[in-house]
Amino acid sequence: MKQKKLSRGLKRDLKKRVNKASANSVERIFHADCNKEATKFDGARRVRKANFSAPDPLEAKVLKVLGKEACSASRLLKVLNISLKEHALCKKILRKLEAQGSIIALKGSQYIVPKTADLYTGIIQMHATGTAHVLAQQPHEPDLYISHENTATALDGDLVVARLLTNRSSHFRGLKPKKIRLEGKVIRILQRSKKPIIGTFKHSNNFSFLIADDPRFGHNLYLGGDTLGAKDGDKVVAILEQWENRHNPPEGKLLEVLGSSENPEVAMLSIIRKHELPIAFRSDVLSEAARFDSCLDPKDLLGREDLRGRPMITIDPEDARDFDDAIEVQSTATGWDISVHIADVAHYVLPGSALDEEARLRGNSVYLVDRVIPMLPEHLSNGLCSLRPHEDRLAFSVFASIDHEGKAHHVRFARSVIRSIARLTYKQALMMLVNPPKDLLAERVHAAWSCAHVLRKRRFAHGALDLEMPEVKVWLDERGIPIKLERIENDISHQLIEELMLLTNELVARHLTRTKQPTLYRVHEKPDASKLDEYRELVASYGVQTGDLAHRRELQKFLNGLKGKAFESALKIGLLKSLKRARYTPEPLGHFGLQKRDYAHFTSPIRRYADLMTHRALAKQLGLTRAGPSSRELTHIGEHLSLTERTAGDAEKESVRLKKLDFFQAQQDPQRQKIFNAHIIEVRNYGLFIELPDVLISGLIPMSTLDDDFYLFDALHNKLIGRKHKKIYRAGHLLKVVVYKVDRWKQQVDFRVVD
């Protein structure tokens, strides 16, 4: 109770100060309060995500009975022959299973497993179009499509019950026999998502409301109670209080005023609040990290291989501060001797410690455009654990000999102490690789690429898919305003590190599988044939013919044929959406995209908790420590880490998209306008869909902006033809464009053609 009162008092105090503070002081206040106590957002996050215990065995028995027939609570107790002492426990389990959607309460106090009664339970995922999907709870089950009129009052992230509409199933005409998409209707909301709603505050004469930033929240949220001094146009945080039916608007309560929406800092804080990302570390976590000296203690070196005299290097992005990995590759008569050295985070972050609890809760570091929200305190992430040049560091090393065919031999593992001789950026490494080697350092970089090139060639020969896409880095000025968009290619300097890390992850996973040591694997299961068939229809709409994409060779052939095409990135993104998500699980189910039977994450323990778990598993198997991850906890930790990874990815993409919109909005000023190269990727009767390959953004050229002629849409040949000058626009054509209009709410950019 004391903790609850303290949290409420903190919230009231924070609200008062936010009202009086400028937008620039919001984060300062928030940092100070986070150091005293976890914030309400982080606190709620802990409650929902911190339970990693194994399920009660009685749950499985209850589910087994209810999976066959509907039962009342009293009948269930008799069927299970449960003693009087366990009656209360069984009823508690029933309430728990009902709350999480595993069972449904029917009329007459009967319980049943949803599928038995053509009911579906799951998290609903809303789309900007108003439609939705109830996500399947099991990996091999299909998602349930929900049309706009059948979503009831469900909002994105709610746990819902939906009834299967057998007479409304959607039929698709594919290249194979007709297939059915399951369609349903939301009939009950079991649990509202606790996510805060972020948006812009608006005030009219009689009431106040919020316009959500997320286009999937397609309603104005009417705000009752105290408006906390919010001004028209401010970014605010609110929570849904009630929404009883679709005829009335949803009602909510204002929690916090972030500040003016024009302030770049406030815009980033909005993303942090939306995804409930923690900003500051708890005081006990910081205290625990601070206990480690900046220099190594001699006792830390006991039992480790001393590799400080060997010429190992790190290669990372230009702005990186946490260096997870160092490499050393040397040419031999039969191939190459390689060693990959990974920061030994497990030496500092011990199981059950405050550091471990916080790292597991966060799951991973989050890399937003203007900041990093680290998994570990800076003293460790950028200090003791980071493999900085010319400093002694503890590592977990993997050694192997690679022959000229790319096969690994003589693999071994050891804890070590290393000293990197150089910290290279990708640009510096690339300059070395495109020129003849001039010194020993350049020779080692060339040797590393020679080995990586053979590994890469072997990987694709065995069926790996080339799904790599370039990225765009947004450069900001000191005020947080975007000044430049830079396309980052997956060039040979990136491929060098990528191949050595992929090999290291595979070697560790293979060893743990063979020795039957429990660990978390990174798995990517085979896609559903129905999803690939739907994707083929999308591909056909671009005029591209494919074979059966369920066959790996056909899929590889298709991807190779996309290279250099105007619609390459659009179709690659479409394919990624058709494939299953990679996830963490204790079972070695293989990795479809990489075509690897055993694969785990090992090479980034500073920024991923899954890698830290793999380090502990390897140390346990090698006899270097007594403690290792148990099979009982791995399933739940894997589910949690898969979730935190998706959350981080969504936040990172949103921050990039936000800053891109800021950049293009500034381009509307004629004095700052820049001309961009564009590809036409699709032609419609209302305009041209284009992609800007240099900055990786798509947009529309509205038909109304093509004012040099009157254009007719030729649907048969998918092109526009000018009536007077006979000018033609069709997919694949190159154009020069400038920004015409930016719609921030829809997060869309319109362009117009320039000569």
Largest pleated sheet: 5 strands, mixed, barrel
Please report the total strand number as a whole number.
36
Mean pLDDT: 87
Radius of gyration, in Å, reads 28 Å
Question: Strand order, biggest sheet?
Answer: 4-5-6-10-7
Alpha-beta content class:
alpha+beta
Q: Fraction of residues in helices? A: 25-40%
Stretches where pLDDT is under 50 for at least 5 consecutive residues are 1-50, 171-178
Q: Supply the number of helical segments.
A: 18
Shape: globular
| First-last Cα distance | 69 Å
Q: What attributes characterize this protein structure?
A:
755 residues, 5-stranded mixed β-barrel, 18 helices, 26% strand, disordered N terminus
Written description of the protein model:
The strands form eleven sheets. Strands 4-5-6-10-7 form a five-stranded mixed β-barrel. Strands 11-12-13-15-14 form a five-stranded mixed beta barrel. The longest helix is centred in the last third of the chain and has 36 residues, at 631-666. The protein is built from 18 helices and 36 strands. Helix 1 (2-20) packs antiparallel against helix 2, helix 7 packs antiparallel against helix 18 (631-666) and helix 14 packs antiparallel against helix 16 (568-578). With 755 residues, it is an alpha+beta fold. The chain starts with a helix and ends with a strand. A hairpin with a 5-residue loop joins strand 25 and strand 26. The radius of gyration is 28 Å and the shape is globular.
In brief:
With 755 residues, the protein is an alpha+beta fold. Helix content is 32%, strand content 26%.
Please give the structural blueprint.
Layout: H1 2-20, H2 26-36, H3 40-49, H4 57-66, E1 71-72, H5 73-79, H6 87-99, E2 104-106, E3 110-112, E4 119-126, E5 132-134, E6 144-146, E7 159-164, E8 170-172, E9 179-181, E10 183-191, E11 197-203, E12 208-212, E13 220-224, E14 234-242, E15 251-260, H7 264-274, H8 283-290, E16 305-306, E17 313-316, E18 325-331, E19 335-343, H9 354-362, E20 366-367, E21 372-373, H10 378-384, E22 392-403, E23 408-419, E24 422-425, H11 426-433, H12 440-461, E25 471-476, E26 482-488, H13 492-514, E27 521-523, H14 529-541, H15 552-562, H16 568-578, E28 583-585, H17 609-621, H18 631-666, E29 676-684, E30 687-692, E31 697-702, E32 711-714, E33 719-722, E34 728-730, E35 734-743, E36 748-753
Parallel strand pairs: 6-10, 13-15, 16-23, 17-24
Antiparallel strand pairs: 1-3, 2-3, 4-5, 4-7, 5-6, 7-10, 8-9, 11-12, 11-14, 12-13, 14-15, 18-19, 19-22, 20-21, 22-23, 25-26, 27-28, 29-30, 29-35, 30-31, 32-33, 33-34, 35-36
Helix pairs in contact: 1-2, 7-18, 12-13, 14-16
